[in-house]
């Protein structure tokens, strides 16, 4: 059969490999490679293939090398057999052979081999042939990936730095590329020390190297901060020709350099204007490339138009959507169209948007309708036209179009009060067709807000009340508020209605937000209706023009990262890139240095990570504001109405503390917290508004019994955490586990994990909508916890989560939140809110997340501290089945910020002395004993603070080099 | 940098993987498959996907997905450009870029991938350099190789690798020296219902086929270079000369290459070669609709419009089309809901018309979306922007080459809304 011809059995191959005939050998190796590529295990042939290596036939040699690279790792002892040939080949008169040898050696990722590599590599870095030098430069990066310490000790980094001044541009480009990659895992190494001389060398090499080299050099240039505007201009002048390169990545990297450096140019400079003009055409051209390129370009253009709208203000038309654009391109184009919309082009934009609203793709149509609303809010002169366009669309009766239109009309009302109310009648006609919570809520808001102008407002609202308990929280809250508004406006006819809604909200609901809002209204209405009017019908602040602008400091940082993954995700680079343990936060115009926190070891327990929390998207109001929604001006600004004592505690706390107090209800015993108790009043206590009291009974005495925050999974689960994760390098990151099952959260499933990157703890979550309706308005809050973990920004879920959709969210955490001891210590109670409800769950984070980057203690201090700590504060553990040697273990632990201070070898036993520091400033010292040949380690942990138990858990998964450490400590 | 590459076909099989650093389990592709499930069409899969530990950057070419895995911050455009380059190279080597061809040449593919990246850094991506390192398979060569035992792999250092002109190999020799240039323009346009141009621009490209002995230095100049709004060049073009003189001066690569891309939109109004009179309507009552399309010439620069074709994406409810074409044939592809009308040459004396009834699924509501017409056409011997090459000179070599410039205009994304 053909299959047998292509992939013959192993024994046949073995015979052919050992054939005397060269040609037969070569064909056999080819067959081996062919089998390997389709995933057949041909590792058994290792010695036979390696035997073919010593040949003068270059093709055969290359094939053997291909094989070696693939299998050396699983056969490290065999791989050593190949070393001699490599060393010999590095001396070969043919530079192609020398380069091939040094290139292949670096790809054999076997620790044992690396030491043999050093001498040949050193020679090749200084080889007379630039082709060999440029290959050797990359080899340094490879070696660094396998054994960073070795590369530093051998001085290869300095040699690499010298290569930046090499006479050959290709060597310069590769040296820059290698250094950039190494620097990413070495935040403070200052490897790419840029000064005017090196910049000049880079700019010279830029003109002569390959397209890829140009990208490396441009990205490196972007990190430089020019001394003055003259230097800035001269760099810009030398970079602009790159805008005409055929490779779009070169173009975008050049745009990055120009966008960053032009910040330093005075705006009145002629050159500044010239530069602005030069930027538009290449950006437009990127949009005629393949759709994948377009997508990345559009994400970046989105940043550029926010920072410098003038560049593309005349180019609106290139963003018009084509019928056969992929959906991801369509949605991005739409976004940019709105950003570029202005009085000058609004007519065109509106005509386009109206066209899009009749397309097939539902997501796109919805976004187009929303865009019309955003235009109305952004360009005042167009508001009327937008409203009439929206009315036209409502007339189409296409269900989702109508609903989107109503949602945006609500915003238009808020922006231009008392202007377009004439359309309310048309809106009311469509009341019955609204089935999405957001649209229902918007419609209810409109009815409540304009109750005095809608004759049958009471009937309309009453019709919603029938299925009150089936509505989502968003709708319920809105309905409650709307009916209270209606009552305040037309008190005589609507007493019964308001009574009904208050009782539904307070008695029959188990949603705390709804209940509490119900109580507040109830209390307000019953004590001081005048104040109630002031509060509920207060003048609302106008909504701002652009709701989804990126926060300026984040935008600045992203402009410095144009063309990167960060720019595609519009997140700070520190927030998400694996392995980059210390990304420098970039700012325009100067660098603010690294984001590492600096704190003295003696810091009190309150000190945490001091890094400024990552930027916040302003459109995501804070949780509290969201919960109370549109209407309720916080009592603090209007002066709180008199509230009776029983209510005060609960209500105030609710307003002040937000959700964390609610979560705390059950677990929080240390803090005095009282659940809102029913106001103690009888009909006689009713306030001055006489007539109002008539219908009011006392609210029910039944109070929220318990919020069943799922009690944390036991410690046993934690033991499992490390199992099976295959993260060969980098810090320990547990896999995602399900925190909140969909069953318990009305269809919302949350799984997640914690990671520490670049000194920032992040909660990485996967939110899945397993319900039938769209979820929106996500927010998150933690209860106080042992280490003061708190979210450092809002939960960034900007798009609604449709049914069956999953979304990844990374939430940066700070450690400066309120502290309360939890049991177990690393337990975290979380509340997540969406348009449907509020849900609670608890999860546990690996303590290793809390180990800070500067946890390396001075040797002397370590010694003194070690002696000082009494034996009572010491615990000893066994780590079973660890097959790493002490150095590898030390490296592994270092990636989790457990630093080895010293190493001692006594009678064949390695003793590693290690330190780590928690975010709250507590130091933990450790001694790790590793006996050669004994897979069980012993560790002793000590801390000044008394440690009752301190556990190191360690798991070995089946695959080699996938050893994970999980360190959990309990400190009393 | 680029960590791994997976080649995946439309049915979701991974049929080739290559790792430049450590091996990454192909289970990482599950995230991609998840996204692919969600997408309506294969081309709707987002090109950049985030997974807990990696990023997946994908391009879609010829029914194949080229999926790369990266672990550190890498410019995504760099990866996307590279992946397209890989696809181009396969195309160049094997004549097409398909699953079967890649599987048939799997060892060559591996050798190529190994030469193209080192540790995730691009190494040799120029077709000239690659062809010196690994010779493309030809039937003749494999016969010769078998007979003589000679090898497929070059064993000298490719000359291009380090010279300042990496795109050209040394010692090129031809008996017939020739340099041909194709100026190809594509009109991207959106016309609205009434035929008014909503948006139009021209994407131009100059494809070169140069087979010249030695180290020729060429200069190509235009009659009207100021037409061009934006240009991007092959690295061989000397940018300074362009900036100062608006001429293209370059030492060409050997063989076929793209000399420049350009863009025309703002300065001159774009000529639209055809007009379309159309009406597609669906009745409120009864499951049918009516279609009537006529196409006529508009601004054709006095040339004939050829290979005219209309594609209409019909609403889902349309089951069949019962139409009459005065010229050409029409077909209705039911599964994809695409109506294709292949017209051919446009005769200004007798305008082609397509007319008749569309039948809808019984009981289906009147379609909400308006179908959009995509037009394909070709006009030989003219660049619609009016761009003209004035002359081509050669320096550095003594012989006289054959020279030629050809122009053609095509429809790119040319849409008529209804």
Map the helices and strands.
The complex is a heterodimer of chains A (972) and B (418).
Chain A: H1 2-6, H2 10-17, H3 22-37, H4 46-51, H5 58-71, H6 76-79, H7 83-89, H8 95-107, H9 111-125, H10 130-146, H11 148-153, H12 156-163, H13 169-184, H14 196-208, H15 211-221, H16 229-239, H17 248-261, H18 270-286, H19 291-307, H20 327-340, H21 346-356, H22 362-378, H23 383-395, H24 399-415, H25 424-429, H26 437-449, H27 457-465, H28 473-489, H29 495-507, H30 512-527, H31 529-536, H32 552-559, H33 565-569, H34 623-628, H35 635-638, H36 645-657, H37 659-667, H38 715-721, E1 737-740, E2 748-757, E3 760-769, E4 779-782, E5 790-791, E6 806-814, E7 827-833, E8 838-844, H39 859-868, E9 874-879, H40 886-894, E10 899-906, E11 909-917, E12 923-931, E13 937-943, E14 947-956, E15 963-971
Antiparallel strand pairs in A: 1-2, 2-3, 3-6, 4-7, 5-6, 7-8, 9-13, 10-11, 11-12, 12-13, 14-15
Helix pairs in contact in A: 2-3, 3-5, 5-8, 7-8, 8-9, 8-10, 9-10, 10-13, 12-13, 13-14, 13-15, 14-15, 15-17, 16-17, 17-18, 19-20, 19-32, 20-22, 21-22, 22-23, 22-24, 23-24, 24-26, 26-28, 27-28, 28-29, 28-30, 28-31, 29-30, 30-31
Chain B: E1 2-9, E2 14-19, H1 30-38, E3 48-50, E4 55-61, E5 64-70, H2 76-94, H3 99-104, H4 106-116, E6 117-118, E7 121-122, H5 127-133, H6 139-148, E8 178-191, E9 197-211, E10 217-222, E11 230-233, H7 239-245, E12 247-250, E13 255-264, E14 274-282, E15 288-297, E16 305-313, E17 318-325, E18 329-333, E19 338-344, E20 353-360, E21 372-380, E22 389-395, E23 402-417
Parallel strand pairs in B: 8-23
Antiparallel strand pairs in B: 1-2, 1-5, 3-4, 4-5, 6-7, 8-9, 9-13, 10-12, 10-22, 11-13, 14-15, 15-20, 16-19, 16-21, 17-20, 18-19, 21-23
């Amino acid at each position: 059969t053909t299959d047998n011809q292509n992939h013959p059995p192993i024994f046949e191959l073995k015979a052919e490999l050992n054939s005397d005939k060269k040609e037969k050998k070569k064909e056999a190796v080819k067959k081996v490679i062919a089998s390997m590529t389709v995933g057949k295990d041909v590792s058994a042939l290792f010695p036979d293939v390696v035997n073919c290596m010593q040949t003068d036939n270059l093709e055969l040699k290359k094939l053997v090398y291909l094989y070696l690279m693939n299998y050396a790792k699983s056969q490290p002892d065999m791989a050593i057999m190949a070393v001699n040939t490599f060393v010999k080949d590095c001396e070969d008169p043919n530079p192609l052979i020398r380069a091939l040898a040094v290139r292949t050696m670096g790809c054999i990722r076997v620790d044992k081999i690396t030491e043999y590599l050093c001498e040949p590599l050193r020679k090749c870095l200084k080889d007379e042939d630039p082709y060999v030098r440029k290959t050797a430069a990359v080899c340094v990066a490879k070696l660094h990936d396998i054994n960073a310490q070795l590369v530093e000790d051998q001085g290869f980094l300095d040699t690499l730095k010298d290569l930046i001044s090499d006479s050959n541009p290709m060597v310069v480009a590769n040296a820059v590329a290698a250094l950039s990659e190494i620097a990413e895992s070495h935040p403070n190494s200052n490897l790419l020390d840029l000064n005017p001389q090196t910049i000049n060398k880079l700019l010279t090499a830029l003109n002569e190297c390959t397209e890829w080299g140009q990208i490396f050099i441009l990205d490196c240039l972007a990190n430089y901060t020019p001394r003055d505007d003259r230097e800035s201009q001269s760099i810009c002048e030398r970079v602009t020709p790159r805008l005409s390169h055929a490779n779009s990545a070169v173009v975008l990297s050049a745009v990055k350099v120009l966008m960053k450096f032009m910040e330093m140019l005075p705006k009145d400079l002629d050159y500044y204007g010239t530069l602005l003009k030069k930027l538009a055409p290449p950006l437009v051209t990127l949009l005629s490339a393949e759709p994948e390129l377009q997508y990345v370009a559009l994400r970046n253009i989105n940043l550029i138009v926010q920072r410098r709208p003038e560049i593309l203000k005349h180019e609106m038309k290139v963003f018009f959507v084509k019928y056969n654009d992929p959906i991801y391109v369509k949605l991005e184009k739409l976004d940019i169209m709105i950003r570029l919309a202005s009085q000058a082009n609004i007519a065109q934009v509106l005509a386009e948007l109206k066209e899009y609203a009749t397309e097939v793709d539902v997501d796109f149509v919805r976004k187009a309708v929303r865009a019309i609303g955003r235009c109305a809010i952004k360009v005042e002169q167009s508001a009327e036209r937008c409203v009439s366009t929206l009315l036209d669309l409502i007339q189409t009766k296409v269900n989702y179009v109508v609903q989107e239109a109503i949602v945006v009309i609500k915003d238009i009302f808020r922006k231009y009060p008392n202007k377009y109310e004439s359309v309310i009648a048309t809106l009311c006609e469509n009341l019955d067709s609204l089935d999405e919570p957001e649209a229902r809520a918007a419609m209810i808001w409109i009815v409540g807000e304009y109750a005095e102008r809608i004759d049958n407002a009471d009937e309309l609202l009453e019709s919603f009340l029938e299925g009150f308990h089936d509505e989502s929280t968003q709708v319920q809250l809105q309905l409650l508020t709307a009916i209270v508004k209606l009552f305040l406006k037309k008190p005589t006819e609507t007493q019964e209605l308001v009574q009904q809604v208050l009782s539904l909200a307070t008695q029959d609901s188990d949603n705390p937000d709804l209940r509490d809002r119900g109580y507040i209204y109830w209390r307000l209405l019953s004590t001081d209706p005048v104040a109630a009017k002031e509060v509920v019908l207060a003048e609302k602040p106008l909504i701002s023009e652009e709701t989804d602008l990126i926060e300026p400091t984040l935008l600045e940082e992203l402009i410095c990262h144009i063309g990167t993954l960060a720019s595609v995700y519009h997140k700070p680079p520190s927030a998400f890139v694996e392995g980059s343990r210390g990304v420098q936060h970039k700012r325009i115009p100067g660098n603010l240095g690294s984001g590492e926190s600096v704190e003295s070891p003696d810091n009190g327990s309150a000190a945490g990570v001091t890094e400024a929390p990552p930027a916040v998207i302003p459109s995501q109001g804070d949780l509290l504001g969201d919960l109370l929604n549109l209407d309720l001006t916080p009592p603090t600004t209007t002066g709180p109405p008199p509230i009776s004592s029983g209510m005060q505690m609960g209500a105030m706390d609710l307003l002040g503390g937000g959700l964390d107090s609610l979560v705390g209800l059950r677990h929080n015993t240390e803090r005095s917290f009282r659940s809102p108790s029913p106001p103690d009043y009888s009909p006689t206590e009713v306030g001055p508004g006489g007539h109002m009291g008539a219908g009011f009974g006392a609210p029910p005495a039944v109070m929220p019994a318990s919020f069943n925050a799922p009690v944390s999974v036991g410690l046993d689960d934690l033991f499992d955490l490390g199992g099976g994760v295959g993260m060969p390098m980098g810090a320990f990151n547990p896999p995602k586990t399900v925190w909140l099952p969909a069953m318990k959260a009305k269809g919302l499933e949350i799984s997640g994990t914690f990671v520490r990157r670049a000194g920032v703890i992040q909660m990485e979550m996967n939110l899945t909508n397993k319900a039938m309706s769209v979820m929106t308005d996500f927010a998150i809050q933690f209860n106080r916890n042992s280490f003061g973990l708190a979210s450092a920004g809002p939960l960034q879920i900007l798009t609604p989560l449709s049914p069956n959709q999953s979304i990844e969210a990374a939430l940066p955490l700070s450690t400066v939140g309120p502290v309360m001891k939890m049991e177990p210590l690393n337990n975290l109670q979380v509340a997540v809110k969406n348009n449907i409800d509020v849900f609670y769950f608890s999860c546990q984070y690996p303590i290793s997340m809390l180990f800070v980057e500067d946890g390396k203690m001075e040797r002397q201090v370590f010694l003194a501290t070690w002696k000082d700590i009494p034996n009572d504060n010491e615990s000893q553990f066994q780590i079973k089945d660890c097959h790493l040697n002490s150095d590898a273990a030390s490296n592994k632990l270092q990636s989790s910020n457990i630093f080895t201070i010293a190493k001692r070898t006594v009678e064949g036993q390695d003793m590693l002395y290690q330190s780590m520091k928690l975010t709250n400033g507590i130091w933990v010292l450790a001694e790790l004993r590793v006996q050669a040949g004994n897979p069980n380690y012993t560790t002793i942990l000590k801390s000044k603070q008394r440690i009752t138990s301190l556990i190191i858990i360690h798991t070995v998964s089946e695959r080699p080099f996938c050893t994970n450490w999980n360190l959990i400590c309990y400190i009393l | 940098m680029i960590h791994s590459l997976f080649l995946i076909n439309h049915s979701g099989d991974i049929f080739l993987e290559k790792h430049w650093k450590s091996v990454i389990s192909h289970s990482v592709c599950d995230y991609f498959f998840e996204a692919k499930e969600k997408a309506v069409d294969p081309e709707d899969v987002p090109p950049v996907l985030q997974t807990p530990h990696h990023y997946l950057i994908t391009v879609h070419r010829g029914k194949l997905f080229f999926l790369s895995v990266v672990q550190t911050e890498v410019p995504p455009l760099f990866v996307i450009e590279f992946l397209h380059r890989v696809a181009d190279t396969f195309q160049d080597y094997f004549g097409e870029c398909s699953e079967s061809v890649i599987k048939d040449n799997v060892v060559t593919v591996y050798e190529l991938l190994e030469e193209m990246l080192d540790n995730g850094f691009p190494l040799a991506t120029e077709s000239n350099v690659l062809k010196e390192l690994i010779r493309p398979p030809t039937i003749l060569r494999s016969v010769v190789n078998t007979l003589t035992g000679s090898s497929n792999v070059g064993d000298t250092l490719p000359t291009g690798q380090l010279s300042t002109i990496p795109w050209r190999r040394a010692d090129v020799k031809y008996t017939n020296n020739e340099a041909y240039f194709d100026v190809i323009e594509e009109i991207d346009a959106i016309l609205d219902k009434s035929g008014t141009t909503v948006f139009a621009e021209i994407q131009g490209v100059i494809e070169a086929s140069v087979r010249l002995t030695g180290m020729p230095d060429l200069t190509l100049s235009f009659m009207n270079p100021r037409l061009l709004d934006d240009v991007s060049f092959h690295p061989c073009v000397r940018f300074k000369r362009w900036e100062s003189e608006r001429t293209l001066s370059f030492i060409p690569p050997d063989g076929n290459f793209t000399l420049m891309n350009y863009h025309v939109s703002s300065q001159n109004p774009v000529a639209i070669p055809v007009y379309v009179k159309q009406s597609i309507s669906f009745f409120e009552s009864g499951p049918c609709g009516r279609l009537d399309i006529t196409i006529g010439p508009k601004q054709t620069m006095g040339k004939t419009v050829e290979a005219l074709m209309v594609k209409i994406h019909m609403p889902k409810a349309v089951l069949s089309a019962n139409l009459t074409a005065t010229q050409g044939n029409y077909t209705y592809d039911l599964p994809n809901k695409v109506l294709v009308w292949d017209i051919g040459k446009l005769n200004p004396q007798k305008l082609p018309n397509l007319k008749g009834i569309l039948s809808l699924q019984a009981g289906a509501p009147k379609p909400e979306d308006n179908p959009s017409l995509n037009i394909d056409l070709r006009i030989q011997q003219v660049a619609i922007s009016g761009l003209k090459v004035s002359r081509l000179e050669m320096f550095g070599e003594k012989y006289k080459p054959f020279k030629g410039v050809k122009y053609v205009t095509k429809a790119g994304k040319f849409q008529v809304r209804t």
